[in-house]
Amino acid sequence: MADTIEVLVPGGEANPGPPLGPELGPTPVNVQEVVNDINDQTEAFDGTEVPVTITVEDDGSYDIEVGVPPTAALVKDEAGFETGSGEPQEDFVADLSVEQIKKIAEQKKPDLLAYDTKNAAKEVVGTCTSLGVTIEGENPREFKERVDDGEYDDMLVES
């Protein structure tokens, strides 16, 4: 019967210590091999907490499923701040570029309702609005209107 282990690990930085080691120790898998595979699959998240599910079979085989961190965590990591603004419409805590918004949108796209990068970017901008993060120095609501008007289609629309 398969065991399922769910943990949060820092992207690309998992190690055989807790929480993985104690969970994997009693199973028939090679713990270091599993850790290496997790790090390979999560390196794009570079230190951000990533949800990982490991399914271990009795024969020692395993399957790793990597989730995507919450959008807010990706925004905070990309912009380099810990806590959002207490007054996000007036007090801005960070600024992101359009390229950074696109990067986060592409990372999150599998988990979002959006069907393309442009709409995924608009969902990321919504998170920026609630955190107090500007985009290219402007209010995220104004930026979203410009995205809606097609001003960034050259960057956000797949060809």
What is shown here, in short?
It contains seven helices and five strands; from the N terminus they run βααββαβααβαα.
* Uncertain stretches: none
Multimeric status of the protein: single chain
CA-based gyration radius: 19 Å
Name given to the CATH homologous superfamily of the largest domain? Ribosomal protein L11/L12, C-terminal domain
CATH topology of the largest domain: Arc Repressor Mutant, subunit A
Coarse shape: elongated
How far is the N terminus from the C terminus?
A: 46 Å
Describe this structure in words.
By secondary structure, the protein is α+β, with helices and mostly antiparallel strands. The protein folds into two domains: 3-66, Ribosomal protein L11/L12, N-terminal domain (Ribosomal protein L11, N-terminal domain, 2-Layer Sandwich); 71-156, Arc Repressor Mutant, subunit A, CATH 1.10.10. Helix content is 41%, strand content 17%. The protein contains seven helices and five strands. The chain has helices spanning 20-24, 31-42, 71-79, 98-108, 117-131, 140-148, 153-156; strands at residues 3-10, 49-56, 62-66, 94-96, 133-135. The strands form two sheets. A three-stranded antiparallel sheet has the order 1-2-3. A two-stranded parallel sheet has the order 4-5. It is elongated. The N and C termini lie far apart (46 Å). The mean pLDDT is 90.
List keywords for this structure.
159 residues; alpha+beta; Ribosomal protein L11, N-terminal domain; Arc Repressor Mutant, subunit A; 3-stranded antiparallel sheet; two-stranded parallel ribbon; 5 strands; elongated
